[in-house]
Task: structure prediction
Amino acid sequence: MATHLIVTSTEQLTPRLRRVWFRSNDLSAFDGNASTDRYVKLVFPKAGVVYPEPLDMKALRGTIPPEDMPVVRTYTALFPDVAAGTLAIDFVIHGDEGIAGPWAAAAQPGDTLLANGPGGGYRPDADADWYLLAGDESAAPAITAALADLPAEAVARVVILVDSPEHELELELPSGAVLTFVHREAGGDLVEAVRALDWLDGRVDAFVHGEGNAVMHGIRPYLLRERGLDRKQVSISGYWRQGRTEEGFRDWKSELAAAESAT
Ligand SMILES: Cc1cc2nc3c(=O)[nH]c(=O)nc-3n(C[C@H](O)[C@H](O)[C@H](O)COP(=O)(O)OP(=O)(O)OC[C@H]3O[C@@H](n4cnc5c(N)ncnc54)[C@H](O)[C@@H]3O)c2cc1C
Result:
């Protein structure tokens, strides 16, 4: 069953990152989900299409023309409090293109959304010696949640790509963490920044997400081949793809997986 969300307030965290707080009468779907990268599939109905109630994506598929299906967008769900019925989502505001970004830029208290999920697959490995957390603004929420899960003295290297110093966000860090912001507008590059980190001794647990090409073609080969990490030590995937909508990004991921399984 989808979760009904109602906007209660919004907060501009940085010029490109907007936190939207929601409440819900029923967040029981989040009970027992311990992943720090827990995400929901937000459902955006198409304007002018009347859908049967309750809106159920699975039941709807095949019963209406594909172009009338609601648009689905994936977002990290932060601070879900099942008892209080509250959670937040930090949206990257990336211009006029797309559905979810513009929705979030205009969101006002009282606006509603449907969310399916949550899914999720990562929680910091308690047995790791140190943590590598890296990504762009789209992964900053999942990195925020991972940092909150670490012990107070954990050793971590955190790298986040943002536009410029004005776009740096505040993060609560464990005492052994070092945070580096990389600035796009100054020619900064996430792949180079991760490669430039001093590599620490011991077993690393890596969480790296963001723009697909940088992450999958730049950082993944570095971690798996050059650093020789085991796949179990690495949570890595694209969260979006430059120049593609989420639908086009899903096709890109499928093509990449097919090409890799063929080699
Ligand atoms: C598991 C998971 C968790 C995610 N969590 C978050 C999250 O918490 N916050 C968040 O903001 N995003 C998150 N994302 C990424 C988000 O799903 C995509 O950015 C999505 O494409 C946004 O949808 P849209 O409707 O705004 O834009 P779309 O219609 O999908 O795309 C329109 C255009 O905008 C561009 N675009 C999309 N995203 C960005 C971006 N971040 N920066 C610059 N240009 C972009 C596309 O390349 C395209 O050209 C997550 C993705 C995954 C898979």
